[in-house]
Specification:
Elements (H helix, E strand, L loop, with lengths): L18 E4 L2 E8 L5 E7 L3 E8 L3 E12 L2 E4 L3 E4 L4 E6 L3 E7 L3 E3 L2
Antiparallel strand pairs: 1-2, 2-3, 3-9, 4-8, 4-10, 5-6, 5-7, 5-9
Length: about 110
Amino acid sequence: MIFQDIFKSGYDYKSLPWQPFRSGVEIYKLYGSEGGASCALLKYEAGASVPKHTHLGFEHVFILEGSQSDQNGTYKVGTLVINDPSSSHNVSSQEGCIVLIIWEKPVVMED
């Protein structure tokens, strides 16, 4: 898979075949295996959130559009957030956002 100009402002994310993930959050899976590493784009509507979850491995989140928040702050376009194994948080987006997310191992949802 090749995604040219993905970091360019105004990239056409709407043309991707998004799937439901959580209420107000859609996912476009890039790769992944059961129990292993995976990568996806997540699209949050304004006000959407993902409940508290724990990371079994590293999680890398790169903010492509909008902003995303957790207990540690609010992250704007161009920010890379790396969450350590065993860390947990809940995530929200006041204005809506699109993020590139890479999980080393699956997460455990606590909802």
